[in-house]
Amino acid sequence: MKCLATAVTLCALGVSSLTIEAHKPITSPYTFAEDVLPILRDRCASCHMPGGPAPMALTTAEETVPWGESIRLELIAGHMPPWSAVSGGRRLRHAEGLSARELNVLLTWVTGGTPPGDVKPAPQVAARTDWALGPPDLTLPLPEVAVAADQAEVVREIVLPLDAAARRPLRAVDLRPGTRSLVRSARVVLRSASAAGAGDVETLVGLWVPGDQPVALPAGTAFAVPGDADLVVTLRLKKTWEHERDAMSDRSTLALYFAGAGAAQVTRRSVAIAPAPPDRGAVPGGVVAGAVLNDGTRILAVYPTAAAAGATITIDATPEGGLLQRVLEFSPQRGWERRYWLDGAIDLPRGTRLQTSVTFERPPAQPLDGPLVVLNVVPLPPR
Fold first, then answer.
1. Rounded distance, CA 212 to CA 191, Å?
2. Residue 337 CB neighbours (<10 A)
3. Could you tell me if 33 and 163 are in contact, meaning their C-beta atoms sit under 8 angstroms apart?
4. CATH architecture of 138-263
């Protein structure tokens, strides 16, 4: 569970919750100390900790009880955690969401009187100081970005020129925020004049959001880095309600991990939504026409574009003469753009038919233009 609601709404719900909980009978068999805290610690504490990017900490019963109603609403709506995905009938390891048991424990506790249990001193949840993928091959400090006292949110594009030694194929990038409570997202792309117009070249090398764990490309694959490329980092900084009147700043650090020589180049396959048939009228959604693969393809990852926020997306593959396979099913949320890495690459032979369905809960505010979903692929190795 990351940011559970806007600051104003959360404050109102929190105060209301305090009043209601005081008169609610204890019906929950679960307690905070024994049952709820382990879930919050494992699933939520990367953001919901003191000094974290979420608008409230959830590390003690005293911190959590006032937000009980907000937690209930966000869990029932499926907004928190802000991502989950299913591939081949199984939840992705890097986008698991909460299990049915975890949901039951949290919902039963917040509606059943929020009993504290045998409260002990809260364990300290420390921010990571190491790099999740190990020591980087190169770190690039980003320039300081300021958010003035009268600003709530700032988006800043930062261009990082690369010298010749750094223009090497990449297997991963990662970001370490300088001010954890401020950094909400980072988008890292390669900008190159020589690669401009090459529609299948993957230039997006990193999508960072709080709480998401970085994933390296499989061995033998890499993002190609042209000889004239610069890295462009788009940072989104947003204050939590506790700091809404403070002048703040951030100086994050970008980490690069290089791939070995001879790695297969990762490309992108864009999926654009097709207009709804005329007889369907103003249907809030649409179906992308299927496409047949002309070559054997290995799918490594999938990511949505900003235009896909609020949709339910399914990607299916049917090999020639074979059975349909669900590649991925997910529902991206606005402000939480990230890559969905498949637990194991999916190999699709030549002649496989790909079908992508996109359904919006409500009609998009703007006409859909451009791709909604991008597949990261490499050629299927010859047998």
1. 24
2. 21
3. no
4. Sandwich (2.60)
Measured CA to CA in angstroms, residue 144 lies from 133, 178, 265, 266 at distances of: 25, 9, 33, 32
| Strand pairing report for 90-91 and 145-147 | unpaired
Can you say how many angstroms the Cα of residue 284 is from the centroid of all Cα atoms in its chain? 24
What is the residue-level pLDDT of the chain in tens, covering all 383 positions?
444 433 334 343 344 443 444 556 888 899 998 999 998 888 888 778 888 888 888 888 888 988 888 888 888 877 777 777 888 777 777 777 778 888 899 999 989 888 888 866 655 555 556 899 999 999 999 999 999 999 999 999 999 999 988 999 999 999 999 999 999 999 999 998 877 666 788 899 999 998 888 999 999 999 999 989 999 999 999 998 888 899 999 999 999 999 988 899 999 998 766 554 444 444 445 656 678 999 999 999 999 888 888 888 899 999 998 999 999 998 888 888 889 999 888 999 999 999 888 888 776 666 666 788 899 999 988 77
- Residue 377 CA to its chain's centroid (Å): 19
- pTM for this prediction: 0.81
Asked whether the beta carbons of 351 and 320 are under 8 A apart, the reply is yes
Q: Check if 138-263 and 266-379 are the same fold.
A: yes
Residue 301: name the closest of 174, 214, 362 by CA: 214
- Provide the pairing of β-strand 264-265 with 221-222: parallel
266-379: CATH topology: Jelly Rolls (2.60.120)
The answer to whether 226 and 107 are in contact (CB under 8 A) is no
Whether 209 and 185 have beta carbons less than 8 Å apart is answered as: yes
Contacts with 16 (C-beta within 8 Å, 6 or more apart), sequence order: 69
Which of 288, 299, 296, 258 lies closest to 359, judged by CA?
A: 288
Domain boundaries, the chain: 7-111, 138-263, 266-379
